Each structure stands twice: as structure tokens, then as C-alpha cells.
TrEMBL record:
<dbReference type="InterPro" id="IPR012162">
    <property type="entry name" value="PNPase"/>
</dbReference>
<dbReference type="InterPro" id="IPR003029">
    <property type="entry name" value="S1_domain"/>
</dbReference>
<dbReference type="InterPro" id="IPR003101">
    <property type="entry name" value="KIX_dom"/>
</dbReference>
<dbReference type="GO" id="GO:0000175">
    <property type="term" value="F:3'-5'-RNA exonuclease activity"/>
</dbReference>
<dbReference type="Pfam" id="PF01138">
    <property type="entry name" value="RNase_PH"/>
</dbReference>
<dbReference type="GO" id="GO:0005829">
    <property type="term" value="C:cytosol"/>
</dbReference>
<dbReference type="InterPro" id="IPR036345">
    <property type="entry name" value="ExoRNase_PH_dom2_sf"/>
</dbReference>
<keyword id="KW-0479">Metal-binding</keyword>
<keyword id="KW-0808">Transferase</keyword>
<dbReference type="Pfam" id="PF00013">
    <property type="entry name" value="KH_1"/>
</dbReference>
<dbReference type="InterPro" id="IPR015848">
    <property type="entry name" value="PNPase_PH_RNA-bd_bac/org-type"/>
</dbReference>
<dbReference type="InterPro" id="IPR001247">
    <property type="entry name" value="ExoRNase_PH_dom1"/>
</dbReference>
<dbReference type="InterPro" id="IPR020568">
    <property type="entry name" value="Ribosomal_Su5_D2-typ_SF"/>
</dbReference>
<comment type="similarity">
    <text>Belongs to the polyribonucleotide nucleotidyltransferase family.</text>
</comment>
<dbReference type="InterPro" id="IPR027408">
    <property type="entry name" value="PNPase/RNase_PH_dom_sf"/>
</dbReference>
<dbReference type="GO" id="GO:0004654">
    <property type="term" value="F:polyribonucleotide nucleotidyltransferase activity"/>
</dbReference>
<keyword id="KW-0963">Cytoplasm</keyword>
Length: 695
């Protein structure tokens, strides 16, 4: 008999079934939120993985199309690689949980989340986040839980907890917050320029709800929790640290890391490592863990320099941003380009415009969204950090960084009605040493403006770091962290936004949560920094969107037709519209409400297509003069095509003022002629005349 636990969460029932399925996993729960059902399991290997110096955690969020009553599209009727949404959900589950496992734990841990059914009003992603935390907390895997996750929307100025699909569609905020008993441990947000104080209030509204869920989880753990198993610790022995300090003094290590050049620092650490290897050549046990020990020695040194001495490795002040540079139009012929440089972080962003028909089609569990008009992609080649490795396509990090920059820019994009284009921006990382995702936001904002996309405002992003001491009050928030401060620090707090407010947040931490004071200080510092970046750097490269799209970008003519006439324009099996496209060299998109977009680079062809469509959808009227091509000759007259699929007949008596014995004497197939509509004849058919055009 399985155990069932229930609570009311935002007006819907959250139910957790324990010992019902997957009993061989270390921990497993069958989660129900409304009609959304997710199986969440946590498993760990019996022994540590050899030869690694990190905790091998793997998180999987598996979407199944049967969960929404669909069969996967395409030829292969089986789910393939994880969707972008699944990858982003993997990351948002991983980020708050990873810091709560022991840092010296080397056993493989896998958190599997299988979506079995979806109620669009009860987020499967949220259900999986809660389920992964509960499954791990009740398991025998060492984990300092529980944690809870809550989503917050903002509808008509009011906060909404775990919003429904309808509420999400009109919400100005999509916020996800994970918490421990005392602190906030993860923040992810997209927002329509939400003011900083309102964002802080939303974060701690979610934190309050999380405490109620944690109390609920405690009841489950009390009844179903397993004792945590022991494990082999891989912590670096203190005696090794003591011996290292005799070979390389703290002052020497500080001198090695105290430089603003990444390559110089890496060379200094290489020399330090060789010195230690030589000193410990006779101790194989120490040599095996020396790389991790050197890393920990660097970490202790950098943290002490920052927290106690207020010294940063590159010599900057605590709130000082590295040297900045911005430029546009560095790449010829593309539709828009920009480059943003911050210290040794450099992003080149290229913007491409296309007709709406090239928007990305989505095949996932979210039935509310089937296409995506704006796409932001991020690439991180190995040369950007001075390394060499083959490119295997985007990994989870690249997908996550691209989605974060995309989320930051969506709120300022023009509507489809105002700017009927599909838009793609690609951030190429030329150099990386800290927060390339936020440099991507800056570069993409400028590239969009350079391409003539009428965005509402520039958007800039910046990242803050954190170094903490032994108490909650002993900490230092750093503006614009570089790679070393990210590696050895406790937080990477990324915030993007405009002058008006925040458009995106992503917070990663390595400790057991943040206090309200730290979060408020980080948000205040990122606002100050991003305003400086926009006003003093980006605006000097480009201060507003260009009035028109560039020379090489496609142009679009819009027109509105009667929806009842769409079939006339498309024709049987697309014959009519394809003929127009072939004749004029344009692309044509028609929506169900009769909005027509004609896209091309040749103005003459675009205008010709517009006229043809206008001719097709306009009813003939007496006195109307038309131009067309002779497509058929009969004994009694000629048929003239005015547009693909639309034609009329000129009787032999209406061809010329002179008597015509044979139509072929005057007309040849393919001739272009002008005719005038005479109205309808006795049989209700339209009659046309060539000889009466002048009149």
C-alpha cells in the first residue's frame, strides 16, 4: 500500500504518492498537481566515479508527447533529442539542488523527471522541480534539503502564485524562485520592464509560499525519509594544504593570481603547480589530488583577498566595471551587426530578418505556443577561452545562455503588426572571461537597432558576484565578475533590463541561499551598472533604431484582404499563389484574418505581386481598365489573364474598331493587352473590350 500526501497550493491540489512506483530507485515520488502528473526519481551509484574532481550530477526532464495527447511530428514517430524547453528545465532543476549536495561527494547522481500528463493550468516544469527535491530529500542520498520552488506572475498589477495558462498569457512577469528553509537559493525571471522594488517583493512573496511547501515536505520526510548513506570523502587533507603553504607561500599565491590578464594568470598557476609537483614527487597520494588542491588553494587566496582585503584579482574597485567598448556595422552585407567588449569578454552579434513564415515551429507540451517569432542563439567556441576542442553543436550551457538573452529582449520587440518579420540574433563569443550571456544582451540590443528593428528601448545586462564569510552579515557583492571571481565566488547574479525596469534575471549560487539584504544590494548594483553601460557606452555606438531596415534585408509590403478571398489568392493546391511567387520572386504570407505580407528585396517585384493580389481579390466593375496577357484564342474571341487564376474574355467584336475576321490576325498568345470592363452581359458574365479602352 502506497502513502499519499496532499496540500492545497494556489487553489489546486498538490498530491505526492510515495512507494507507489519505481521502488528500486533511491528515492521516487509520483507527483500530481491538478491533472499534471510527473514521475520524479533520484538514484546514486554505490561507489564514487574514479578520476574526477567534481560532483557528477545529471538532471533529466523527459517530455512525452502522449502527455498532451499528441504523436510526435516528422517521419520518426518517437521523441528525439530533448527540446529547448526540456534543456532549460533541466538547468532550472539543477541550479538550486547542486549546492545542497556535499562538495566532496563523487558518486554519480541522476535525477529523472518523466512527464506523464499535462494540465496546462498546472506547470509540469514546476511539478518536476518540486518532485525532484522531494524524491532526493526522502532518499538515502546525502542532500541538505528540503527545498521548494514557486512561480509568480504579475496580472493587472497583482502577484499571482503559480499562474494558470490564461494568466501566463497576460502576465508581465514569469518568475521562478527556489528556497531553503531560511534563504532564496535560485531565481529565474523574464519580465516586461518590472521595477526593481516590485521584483524584490515578488521574489519574497514566492519565498513565503516556499516555506509552506517545505513544511508539507517535512511531513513526508518524517514518515517516508530514509537515513542518509555514508560515502567516501574526497576533501583535500588539511596536512596537504599546510605542506603546500611551505612550498608556495600565501603571498606568492596571491602574486600569482593578482593580474588582469587571464593568460598571464594561467601561466603563473602552471609555474606554481610545477613547483608543487616537484616538491611532492615522492608522494603519489598527494600528487593524485594536487590539481584539486591547487584549485582550492587559489580559491582560498582569492576569497581572502576580496573579502578581507577588498582587493580584486585584476586590481579593480568592488563596484568597478572593466573597460567597455561598443560598435555596430562591423560585418558587411548582414542585416545588422554589433560587437560589445567588456574586459576580456567579447561578443559579436548578427541580426537576420525574414518573413514570418520562417518563424520557428514548436512541437512540445505547451499547447499555448506553437511558433516563436524571435530566436536568439549563442555560440561558445573553444578558442574564446584559449582552448582547443572540436565543436559538437550547442550544449546545455549554450542553449541556456541563448534563452536568457532572448528572454531579456522579447519585452522590447515591436508587435508583428508593427514589424511583420521573423527575427534571429546570433551571439558569437570571440573572447570569454566572465558573463558572456550579459554581453550578448548588450550586443544583441545594438544589432537589433542597427538592423532597423524598432525596439522600444535599449537593453543592457551585467552580472554581480558574491564572496561570503562565516556569518550572514560577512559578505561582499562584486560588480561585473570575471571568470576567476565566478569560479571561486559564491554567486553569479545576472540582471538585464532597460531604464524602466528588469526584463530578465538568472541567479546561480554555490552556497545554501541568499538573504534579502544580499539580493537587494545585488539588484541595486546591477541597475546602476546597466544604466551606465546603456548611457555611456551603447548609446554612443547607436542610440536608437534605424528608420529603415538595411539594404540587404528583405522588405515587406502589407495589405489586408477579405478573409473570404484567401482561397482565391492561394488557388487550388496553392497553384495561384505559387504562380505569383514564381513570376515576381517574392515570398508571401497570409494569415487567417486576411493579413498579407509580401517580402522581397526587389521593389518592382514586390509591387507587381501587390497588384496581382489586389486584382485577384477585387471584383470587376464597369469602366475598370485592366492589363493582362492573352492565354487562349478561340474563334469567338480571346481569353485574357489579369492575374494568376483570374481571367476574362474579349469577344471578337470588341477587339478592334476595325472588322476582325480572325482573332489570330490581331492577337497572339502571350500578348500583353489593355481592356476595359463593360459590365455583365445578358447571361450575367463580365464582358471586356479592347477597342473601348480609350473611351
Amino acid at each position: 500500500m502506497y502513502k499519499k500526501f496532499e496540500m492545497e497550493l494556489a487553489g489546486r491540489t498538490l498530491r505526492v504518492d510515495v512507494d507507489r512506483v519505481a521502488k528500486q530507485a533511491n528515492g521516487a515520488v509520483l507527483m500530481h498537481y491538478g491533472d499534471t502528473t510527473v514521475l520524479c526519481t533520484a538514484t546514486a551509484s554505490e561507489k564514487p566515479r574514479e578520476g574526477i574532481d567534481f560532483f557528477p550530477l545529471s538532471v533529466e526532464y523527459n517530455e512525452r508527447m502522449y502527455a498532451v495527447g499528441k504523436i510526435p511530428g516528422g517521419f520518426n514517430k518517437r521523441e528525439g533529442k530533448a527540446s529547448e524547453n526540456a534543456v532549460l528545465t533541466d538547468r532550472v532543476i539543477d541550479r538550486p539542488m547542486r549546492p545542497l549536495f556535499p562538495k566532496d561527494y563523487r558518486n554519480d547522481v541522476t535525477l529523472e523527471n518523466l512527464v506523464l500528463s499535462v494540465d496546462q493550468d498546472c506547470s509540469p516544469e514546476l511539478t518536476a522541480m518540486l518532485g525532484a527535491a522531494i524524491a532526493t530529500t526522502i532518499s538515502d542520498i546525502p542532500f541538505d534539503g528540503p527545498i521548494s520552488t514557486t512561480q509568480v506572475g504579475l496580472v493587472d498589477g497583482e502577484f499571482v502564485i503559480n499562474p494558470t495558462a490564461e494568466q501566463k498569457a497576460v502576465s508581465d512577469l514569469a518568475l521562478t524562485v527556489a528556497s531553503t528553509r531560511e534563504k532564496v537559493i535560485m531565481i529565474e525571471a523574464g519580465a516586461n520592464e518590472v521595477p526593481e522594488q516590485q521584483m524584490i517583493d515578488a521574489i519574497f512573496k514566492a519565498h513565503e509560499v516556499n516555506q509552506e511547501v517545505i513544511k508539507f515536505i517535512d511531513t513526508i520526510v518524517a514518515e517516508c525519509g530514509k537515513p542518509k548513506h555514508s560515502y567516501e570523502s574526497f576533501a583535500v587533507p588539511e596536512e596537504l594544504f599546510a605542506a603546500m603553504k611551505e612550498v608556495v607561500t600565501p603571498e606568492e599565491m596571491e602574486e600569482a593570481v593578482f593580474t588582469d590578464d587571464k593568460q598571464t594568470r594561467e601561466e603563473n598557476i602552471r609555474v606554481v603547480t610545477e613547483k608543487l609537483e616537484e616538491a611532492f614527487a615522492d608522494n603519489e597520494e598527494w600528487l593524485a589530488i594536487l590539481p584539486d588542491a591547487v584549485y582550492q588553494y587559489q580559491k582560498k587566496t582569492v576569497r581572502k583577498m576580496i573579502l578581507k582585503d577588498h582587493k580584486r584579482p585584476d586590481g579593480r574597485q568592488i563596484d568597478q566595471i572593466r573597460p567597455l567598448a561598443a560598435e555596430v556595422d562591423l560585418i558587411p552585407r548582414v542585416h545588422g551587426s554589433a560587437m560589445f567588449t567588456r574586459g576580456q569578454t567579447q561578443i559579436c552579434d548578427i541580426c537576420t530578418l525574414a518573413p514570418l513564415s520562417e518563424a520557428q515551429r514548436l512541437d512540445g507540451l505547451d499547447e499555448a505556443e506553437t511558433t516563436k517569432r524571435y530566436m536568439h542563439h549563442y555560440n561558445f567556441p573553444s578558442y574564446s577561452v584559449g582552448e582547443t576542442r572540436p565543436s559538437r553543436g550547442p550544449g546545455r550551457r549554450e542553449i541556456g545562455h541563448g534563452a536568457l538573452a532572448e528572454r531579456a529582449l522579447v519585452p522590447v520587440l515591436p508587435s508583428e503588426a508593427d514589424f511583420p518579420y521573423a527575427i534571429r540574433t546570433v551571439s558569437e563569443t570571440f573572447e570569454s572571461n566572465g558573463s558572456t550571456s550579459q554581453a550578448s544582451v548588450c550586443a544583441s540590443s545594438m544589432a537589433l537597432m542597427a538592423a532597423g528593428v524598432p525596439i522600444k528601448s535599449a537593453v543592457a545586462g551585467i552580472s554581480c558576484g558574491l564572496v561570503t564569510g562565516d556569518t550572514d552579515d560577512d559578505y561582499l557583492v562584486l560588480t561585473d565578475i570575471q571568470g576567476l571571481e565566478d569560479f571561486f565566488g559564491d554567486m553569479d547574479f545576472k540582471v538585464a533590463g532597460t531604464h524602466e525596469g528588469i526584463t530578465a534575471i538568472q541567479m546561480d549560487i554555490k552556497i545554501h541561499g541568499l538573504t534579502r539584504a544580499i539580493i537587494e544590494e545585488a539588484i541595486a548594483k546591477t541597475r546602476k551598472a546597466r544604466l551606465y553601460i546603456m548611457d555611456e557606452v551603447m548609446s554612443k555606438a547607436i542610440n536608437e533604431p534605424r528608420a529603415e531596415v538595411g539594404e540587404y534585408a528583405p522588405k515587406i509590403i502589407q495589405m489586408q484582404i477579405d478573409p473570404q478571398k484567401i482561397g482565391d489568392v492561394v488557388g487550388q493546391r496553392g497553384k495561384t499563389i505559387n504562380a505569383i511567387i514564381e513570376q515576381t520572386g517574392v515570398k508571401i504570407d497570409i494569415t487567417d484574418d486576411g493579413a498579407v505580407s509580401i517580402c522581397g528585396t526587389d521593389a518592382t517585384g514586390m509591387e507587381q505581386a501587390r497588384k496581382l493580389i489586389y486584382t485577384i481579390v477585387t471584383d470587376f466593375e464597369a469602366g475598370q481598365v485592366l492589363e493582362g496577357k492573352v492565354i487562349s484564342i478561340k474563334e469567338f474571341g480571346a481569353f485574357v489573364e489579369f492575374a494568376p487564376g483570374k481571367e476574362g474574355m474579349v469577344h471578337i467584336s470588341k477587339i478592334s474598331k476595325e472588322r476582325v475576321n480572325h482573332v489570330e490576325d490581331v492577337l497572339t498568345l502571350g500578348d500583353t493587352v489593355k481592356v476595359v470592363c463593360l459590365g455583365k452581359d445578358k447571361m450575367g458574365r463580365f464582358s471586356f473590350s479592347m477597342k473601348d479602352v480609350a473611351e
